[in-house]
Design a protein that fits this description.
Blueprint (H helix, E strand, L loop, with lengths): L1 E3 L5 E3 L14 E6 L2 E6 L3 E6 L2 E5 L9 H14 L7 H20 L6
Antiparallel strand pairs: 1-2, 3-4, 4-5, 5-6
């Protein structure tokens, strides 16, 4: 799936189970202003900029944020506070998910 944003930025998401099981399951790469950020299996991060590479993340424990997300939700419900996720972002991600199906059905891009 490719998302083209109004500011010219691009996001590409590939979901596949075709690779070797020894290879990282989840990779996130971000490119901006000559800097590359690589997150490998949510275990560590590498930042490459100005010809130098810096590894961050000392722990090999995987953290996708699920526990913190559930804790924030429970606190918001218990205290009557605001939702930990922005409602507009929830709606936007839902529209994007539905647009993927529509794009597959049409055989072409869908504007959001």
């Amino acid at each position: 799936m490719s998302l083209n944003f109004a500011d010219g930025s691009l996001a590409t998401i590939a979901y596949t189970a075709l690779g070797d099981t020894a290879y990282s399951k989840e990779l996130v790469e971000a490119f901006a202003g000559g800097t590359v950020i690589n997150i490998n299996d949510f275990r560590g991060m590498t930042v490459t900029a100005a010809g130098k590479e810096q590894k961050q993340g000392r722990s090999m424990e995987q953290d996708k944020g699920h526990a913190a997300e559930l804790e924030a939700f429970a606190k918001a419900v218990a205290s009557g506070g605001p939702a930990p996720a922005d409602e507009a972002e929830i709606v936007e991600s839902s529209f994007a998910t539905i647009a993927v199906l529509e794009s597959l059905q049409r055989g072409g891009p869908v504007d959001l």
